[in-house]
## 1
Amino acid sequence: MQWLLDMLGRKIHRAALTIELDDGARYVLGDGAQQAGIRARDASVLRRVALDPKMRFGEAYVAGLWEPADCALIDVLRVAALIQQDLEPGRVGREITKLQGNLRQWDYGQLSRRNVSHHYDRPPAFYASFLDADLHYSCAYFSEPDMSLEAAQQAKCAHIARKLDLEPGAEVLDIGCGFGSMALFLAEQYNARVTGITLSQAQLAVARERARERGLDQRVQFELLDYRTLDRDFDAIVSIGMFEHVGRPQFRTYFDQVRRCLKPHGTALIHSIGRFSPPGRTNPWIAKYIFPGGYIPALSETAEALEPHGLLSNDIEIWRLHYAKTLAAWRERFAAVRPQWVETYDEAFCRMWEFYLCGSQASFEAGDMMVFHLQLTHDLERLPLTRNYLYAPDEAASKASSA
């Protein structure tokens, strides 16, 4: 076993994973400075994981076949993220992986709904137990040190709203509106009229109820609608955390729809998880258990899909560790309510969710994940010449809300 791990570990120089078995056997994979350890039941667990590590490492954890040894799960998955990067295939291997990913990302009406329902139609109380009070299920923006999760999510909304550069009463489309948090923010703070669309029945019900509770149901409309079926135009379009669900074969369809729905003098802001590395495929464990049909895009393939549609990329902003901080906060909050969800679901479900949250955090801290913003217009002169307006006191919001 150690000989096999040594052969595999020839390329692993940034991290090391120590593996202990219940019978006292001990093995090491890699020779890097960042280290973590696991304790597995027996050698059969290692053999099973070795046959398909990207899938079976997570499955074995969920099944209780291994535990972190003298460290936390997040430490193990940071090491795993570094090991995975060291073992990434070369150019030919990436092209094969890309082709395999394309075959798994065809996304049509009924399949889209099933994929969305798999993740987002859990009881809203589940998400409310670990999200911020305003139910943002996307990356927060920690614009100041030591911000709370609640403050960072509001900072995200304000930053995105500035990028949209809205006039009072602007008509805004929110593609993938989630629980309605961004739409409600724009209606309250900018006096916008917002149409939010989603394929999640559970999120739709919550969003509509929140709009009624805040007295905003005349200015905010939420609809169960596929973005590809829209036939209206808007002053602004915002899409937060939805592009990751589009799938590479549909990128051009997505940007064509953004182009057609955006008025000539409008602005669109696309907020998406991305990868620093070249195009690849979705981690198979994530694709099976967490986000079926999902795909994290590289900027290179996103730009390639965007260019034919004539939309202008006015600004591209990269957020590096903001999602890691967001996930760390979600993970801490989930840990506090874990007993409740063990009782509602079971231990395996909670281990799956912990693995998802920890693995996602590790991918931003030690892997190749980031968040990017694409600010798009038809008009070269639509927006100010510099970024200064994004960081000045937000006078636009106060003017809009009082209009």
## 2
Amino acid sequence: MYLSLSDWKSGKAAGAQRAATVAFKASPTVIALGLVSMLTDISSESVAAILPLYITGALGMSMVAYGFFEGMNQSISSVVRIGAGYAADRSNRPKPIAAAGYGLSMLARAGLLFATGFGGILGVIGLDRIGKGIRTAPRDAMIRAASQPEHLARSFGLHRLLDTLGATFGPLLAFLVLVLVPGDYRMVFVVSLAAAVLGVAVLALLVPNSKLVDSGPAAADQPDATMAAGKPKLRELARGPLGRVLLAAGFLGLLTIGDGFVYLALMEHGQLDALWFPLLFVGSNLFFLSLALPLGRLADRTSRAAVFVLGHLALALAYACAAAGGSWLFLLGALALLGTFYAATDGVLAALAGQLAPAGSTSSAIGAAQTVVAVARLLASSGFGVLWILLGSTTAMLIAAALLLLLIPLAWRLLAGRGKPAGNAVAP
């Protein structure tokens, strides 16, 4: 017996056929939310691009401390994700919840101008991560509600493309600021705040305050035609195909370490001066944004579950390239593979969770998936920092790659039955 990940009601793998016959139309709401995310990522990533070297270099902290910091950033946002998703489902109006999250991140950007020392910076970055945790699930629920069900992963891919443009411009802006004004991190924070303010303005002016239920083309594709607004069924999140997705995403996340570790491992091979470190973020993001739409389209036409699982192969190979280092070929390979991983998993996981959400629980389901991944990455980053200290970057990277390669077949079996995915279907 097969359970469909694209069509809950019929159990048939009809999503790929519909995607091939229905023309893709980008929703204005999806585009507007993409612009909000682009501006917000310019803000956050311009700061994030300088933090790894700032913590391990300027502040002289150890790799264990950096691993804890990286993981804590993930965990802080994960604490509020499900709660924010649940609140959006209960109110059936996700925009105010998302706006609160974006507003907190904007306040965090302002706080960086006044924070002093590691503790102060840690506090405002923590506030930013709380804002991210609040806004993400409601925002993705709005994307899901405004999208064509036949092209759900592609719509998420479009949003992620715009989002990643911001994640690309942010580090580039940080690099340019530090070239023009060497060592002036305060100027980076000013640029970051300006972008955050613009993002909140676009959200307020261009994104409609629509209901989740019966508010867009996706409503007809909801798994239960009798769903009621404001009554999310949280107990159902871990059941059926959605539960399998949460389980697979969780244990794959245990081998998904922070990007900063990959970039620091590449730097250890001595090919780049510290000044060029922010450009490593730019490189991987360029590959991400170039592949987000094609891989989203591929997921809609074939199997979202398969694209999500196989995307982790690219991550394992990125670890191997970071460990090998020593040449520009391995450096570019690591950046390309890391970007491919995010293009194959980020939006696709949100599409999977949103498609399989129980009646009235779209935001909660997406928030649950994001929480599972965030908590797993907290453990991964903290553990990897210890492994780096004990064994060195090269050995630690190779161990992470090998363990991830062992987990991928297990996730494939869990989501794709006996290793033979059909369209968007998985077998129990």
## 3
Amino acid sequence: MAQADLVVLSPGVPHTQPMLEPAWAAGIPVIGEMELASVFVKAPIIAVTGTNGKTTTTELLGQMLKNSGKRVFVGGNIGTPLIAYADGAHGVADVIVAETSSFQLDTTVSFRPATSVLLNITDDHLDRYAGFSAYAESKWRIFKNQEPEDAAVLNAMDATVVKMMETHALRSRRRLFSHVPVVQGARIQKDRIAVVENRRTTVVFDLAKCHLVGPHNRENIAAACLAALEHGATLAGIQQTIDTFRGLPHRVETVGFVRGIRFVNDSKATNVDAVKRALECFDGPVVLILGGQNKKGDFNRLKTIVRQRVKTLVALGEARDEIVTALAGDPQQGVIEAGSMEEAVAKALSAAVAGDVVLLSPACASFDMFDNYAHRGECFRSIVERLA
């Protein structure tokens, strides 16, 4: 490695690996795939990051631009990597929409999005970072190289994002989204998104036909609207997308009904905050299937919402002892343990009655029992379909 001219890391390889020390010592640049690709990309890049909601927002945004007649490449941390576009395999785009992970941002040097979107920052990947502040700083790197003509779309309701706005300088133009009035950005209301310029509403998008449920998805839609408008999306194209976008698999996805009980697959919820957001989508009793491989998440942070909304909790996987210790007294009818997904679904079904929701929202990685979160979600779906 000490003889190389350049080292390019996959996002899955921590940039702190001891094996990289010879390269650091020799002054050899160590960058990531996204940094390398961005050098060769001429189209403006919209980069979307955040602990939760990245993929949904990226896909929404891409569709808003496509429905506006734009040639769009959607990729990055989802689907096709940015380097594949840079290689010329996907034609020429008017705009790039790239989901961007903290791991990818760790290895950026000159990466400069025309628009950077930061959805939220909550506990995640603490098995890889020295602590939460290190993880937050990694997310903030998305703004590092922006200039005054660029745009920063930020969540003014997220406590960590707000704190970092107060302590970190931004050269780019701020476009905030919030439930309360903003100077420049978007105000989120139950049935609409109001785009605001100098405190005055200029455009309103209707959410009456929207298929995405929950407060968190209204935040995702607001962020996507603001970024799309920055890059020439039409009002009709944005509204069409809001009306027709059906959501993505494994994200608060209804997979079936058994005896009047709704089964919802939220396998992509691999951290505590994602579970809180999922539970906020339901008004009635929930039987929650929680667990897997913990990423140093704190299950105690679920106490209040579990006490308020969860009827029975089914603890699954490596983390089930931690879950029982943290939450045993909080669900209305206690915690049940399960050794497999099939057992978890069976016990959840026994605990539920017609009108209840059985929600798979694990707050954990899946690698203790499954290949990935999608494999876990498909297993859940398959079991429910056999029961229906």
